[in-house]
Amino acid sequence: METDHYRRVLETRRAELDRRLTKIEHDLDQPGNPDDDDRAIERNNDEVLEGLGEAGQKELAAIEAALGRIEAGTFGRCARCGEPISDARLAAVPHAALCSDCMSEA
């Protein structure tokens, strides 16, 4: 398996997520607008940003785990059944820990 390729893909995505999460954190730290109507919009926007931040944190954790599997020599094998994860699945979700069958069961 070409783990160097996946390492590069994962590291690139990790850097992108780090930048995006830093921007989200910065945006959430901005002081609120004193106008009531604008505050309501800002609260809605903050909820969306928080959701994006949570999703980004989960993906970041999955990427870190995948990089750990590369180091351990287990990358590309299903964490549940031990069978190889298909190239198509890894191309779509490079941090996948489960094969398609196990993912469907989960």
TrEMBL record:
PROSITE patterns: ZF_DKSA_2. Residues 73-102 form the Zinc finger DksA/TraR C4-type domain. Residues 6-70 form the DnaK suppressor protein-like N-terminal domain. Keywords: Metal-binding, Zinc, Zinc-finger. It comes from the Bacteria. SUPFAM superfamilies: DnaK suppressor protein DksA, alpha-hairpin domain, Glucocorticoid receptor-like (DNA-binding domain). A zinc finger (dksA C4-type) spans 78-102. InterPro entries: DksA-like_N, DnaK_N, Znf_DskA_TraR. GO terms for molecular function: zinc ion binding. It holds the Pfam family zf-dskA_traR. This is TraR/DksA family transcriptional regulator.
